[in-house]
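Narrative of activities, Objective 1.

The group set out to show that a structural description can be obtained from nothing but a protein's sequence at a throughput compatible with the screening campaign. Below is one input-output pair from the validation batch, recorded exactly as produced.
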Amino acid sequence: MTKIAEDLGRIFEVGFNIGILTYIEQNKVKHRFGNFYLHELQQVKFSKMLKRIVDKVISPIERKLAERWSMFFLQKGFLCGLNFFREYITSTGWSSRSLQHLEILYYQCCFSDENSIGTYTKGEEQWAREVLSQLSHDCHDIKRYKQKGEFLKADTLMLLRYHKQFRIFCVDLSVFSINVDADIQDLNYIEIIRRLLMRDISYLRSKSVFSNLKIDTSCLDLEFVEDLKSYFTAFKYGDKESAKLIQSASYAHSFYNFLRETGILTSDVQVLFNVAGYSDRGISAMSIRQENISVLETCHQIYKHDSSPQEINQARQQVFLRIKRSAYGSFNEGRKFIDNLLAIPAERITMVPHQERVTGFFNSIGQVPPAVMEQLGLTGALNLRDAHAELIRKALVSEQTYIFLTGNPGIGKTTAIADFLKQHVDDGFLLFYVSPRKQVNLDIIDKFKQGELLCDSRIFTINSHTDLIADNFGRYTVQYFCNQRQGDFVEQSVHFMDSTAERQGRRLNRLRRKAEDLIQDVGQKTRGVLSSICEAIYTVVDRNISNNIIATVCIQSLKKTEAGDTLKHFEKIFRNAYNEREGTVISAKIKDVSSRIKHLFIMIDEITGDDSGVEFLNGISHILAKYKLTDTSSGFNTKVIVADASIVDSSVINQHLNGTSPEPDKIYFRRATDSSKPLSVELFEFKNLSSSIINANSYPASSLAITYKVFIELCKFNAPIQV
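Output recorded for this entry:
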């Protein structure tokens, strides 16, 4: 890398840490560095830094380009730091309201010496002493901690405390955009920007889709530190984000040892480590609990040890052989299949077939073993489908508020809910059903039908979608189905459209002529799907249209807005029972509703099928708590039913469904037990309320025949051409 490229990397680091400091100042986060960084930044003159960089080139054109790129990297670094730290704080679950409990005990970054391009000279030892003064500790061994892999070399390092929680947060930075002087092109040309973007996109595409996955080891009972050592060594230099992650983990390990050796942190203090390798193309990150600190130690050893090219090649070969052996065991006759894949010829498309039969499934209509029936508190002889339905029925009248249902599609999860409600029409019910698929939302209504009519004339079903609302000029609009009513009608500003009637769209013309030569789309104010559905439910309850309501909506109808999210409309259903001024629930009005509608069921189907699923769950939970709908004094039998084939473990549920922090795509994985029961129930706590998981481990057949036809085109890799 050339001198200018290195300087631009330092400019990016300076901007990144200024962005973090800006977030800290804007949100008034408590810290211990006082005015130290404010004073440091006052000494840093960007104009002088810019002149130092520009003076390294001769041509007037190149000088102007270098100046523009320097401004670009400072701004880019600032925005990256500001957004990354904001997203990090959000991911912790520390809300903006509770940041008063957050304190930054130590924040390390550098704006002097090399990072100021030599314009502000302080000296490493003086800088280190001033930074470490945040810890009220005079370090006598600064040279030791300034060596390779030690924490005083870190780009960004923090020790945070939130109540009694401690976190070490460390980021090591790198930039991709500039490798050599020839990369410095004129940013005013669209074609240059397009090429730069295409180069970044090509790099991201070159990575496996699994590079975006998250590995959660908190409940896997796995020890894979030794495997990580060979993996990280193999990609020590080839993958920039992974290389920077190793460095970051090394610094975090060094910092923790320093804190322990100096007595700043004692052995009984639990620390969570958040380390990241950050580039302007991607992020590699790890969150390590104290019991897994050996992972950080491994990274420390790898980074401090300069691996020879031979060692790196050996490590890559070990990783490849380990992957191949694992693949052998993943298929019947796997060795033959994998060897055929690896033996395909180059420069053409090859199809590699493979067949296997998977056996050992417990059939959905098979009889549940007597021992399992006894453990579950069931009597008689039941097949798995009927036993599963009986467990759901028992859970619906139990003290559990949250019920998590798992099992293969078709096992009868929603059918069991529908059957229960059909048997309790006299009690009254509201079923608010949510799923990511529109057709499933319509299918749930069919479960309450006998032929062309609903099974009970007292049931009233509603659903809505954006086209229906737009065709009715953006007003509150739902379509309904009820044996006792036909035709469209309007009640309290809500338009109820007969779902059996055929209708044509009648949208307003949004185009308006603003001038003789100007026609403009003026848009259309329209009600949202959730707003329409919730307003309709309120109307049906308030006007006593029905005491047995089924409302279905798509998860995708949950939208983020400047004022929050659209799930706030769910509160409309109970708005008469809440005193906004005093912030209190009007118990008499809540009980009036529950005397007519006893069962309040909110069901979220396929919760992991869309990013909004967890948001929906947490939003509903907040509203139920606000209106005290889970309290027995409300009179409701309130159940939040979450159905998904992926959530088979309470630790997975609490880890991934209990918060709304952003997460990448993920695979839920756990070590298989020797014997898996066809049916099980687990009681646990979720959001401080009694909850249960009902898991059906079955398949609607005793065996499964699979035929793979893998098409592969083997092409020679060409390194990307420099822009």
